[in-house]
Design goal:
single chain, mainly alpha, globular, 11 helices, 285 residues
Length: 285
């Protein structure tokens, strides 16, 4: 069996266990909060969940691409100034993890915001925003080309912070678990800590299909970053707010995979007809 297929199977097995554990944890939390109502998945939610599982399964087999990119990037980064691993010898792991998460979130904020306002990048990120049934599996709704950015970025941030491979893996696990949590169907704001750590309400407003909510709440972990840059927006409960966007490809695996290419073809055709207007580049919806 080729190495990349074996690695894909191992990745898929790990993701399956991780998803099952996350599902169990979030279900228990939701049941404690809302009782039996939290256990019910509508037909639309089940359909959305199956599409998201299909996407993460496909991405697991295609992971050889972003993994190869991450290895190549780390090789190039060796020549750049970076924090020596010895700096962290006496630092508690929690300190190392917090530093890495903060730096990663700042870098992610910039890239995430750019993916919303740049008309060429938005079609790729739009696949994630296409889910109209927000639940924890929405975290898995992503195009494989977006993994090509996310995986090398996580590895690069860890390396530049002087973290070990084990630390980088743990950073990825923390990110993964937290993304399942903030995409869950819970309307939790975290009360007085709402600006300190991102919760489901904060992130759902990022997905809400309403003009006043567009291009808000870009940080993954620390909403204070959005507060600092003027993109924090949580006007109230968000559980019943509609998500998605116009011309949504819907719960169709093939359309979701082809959506960026179709949109890029449209943009390329438009670029031959006229120069882009300010409206073209300032908003994705």
């Amino acid at each position: 069996m080729p190495d990349f297929v074996e690695n894909a199977f191992l990745t898929l097995q790990f993701k399956a266990v991780f998803i099952a554990m996350t599902f169990a944890a979030i279900t228990v939390i939701a049941w404690l909060k809302a009782g039996r109502d939290a256990m019910e998945w509508s037909g639309d939610m089940r359909k959305s969940g199956l599409v998201n599982i299909g996407l993460v399964t496909f991405n697991a087999f295609a992971i050889v691409i972003p993994m190869a990119a991450a290895i190549a990037l780390l090789g190039w980064l060796q020549s750049l100034p970076h924090i020596s691993a010895s700096v962290w010898d006496d630092a508690p792991w929690a300190v190392r993890a917090f530093a890495a998460l903060l730096i990663f979130d700042l870098v992610n904020y910039a890239i995430h915001r750019w993916s919303h306002v740049n008309r060429w990048i938005w079609p790729l990120h739009a696949v994630h925003h296409s889910d109209t049934q927000m639940h924890f599996l929405t975290a898995n709704r992503a195009h494989v080309l977006e993994w090509l950015i996310a995986i090398p970025l996580t590895a690069a941030v860890g390396f530049l912070c002087g973290l070990s491979i084990g630390d980088v893996v743990m950073l990825g696990l923390i990110r993964e678990a937290h993304q399942y949590y903030v995409h869950s169907n819970l309307d939790w704001s975290h009360g007085p800590l709402r600006h300190v750590i991102a919760g489901p309400r904060f992130h759902r407003w990022h997905h809400v299909d309403r003009e006043d909510a567009y291009d808000k709440n870009f940080s993954l972990f620390f909403p204070l970053i959005d507060v600092a840059f003027g993109t924090y927006y949580v006007p109230g409960p968000a559980k019943d707010m509609a998500t998605g966007f116009d011309d949504n490809p819907g719960e169709n695996f093939t359309k979701l995979m082809l959506y960026p290419f179709a949109e890029w073809a449209k943009l390329a055709g438009q670029s031959f007809k006229r120069h882009p207007t300010a409206q073209d580049v300032s908003s994705h919806r």
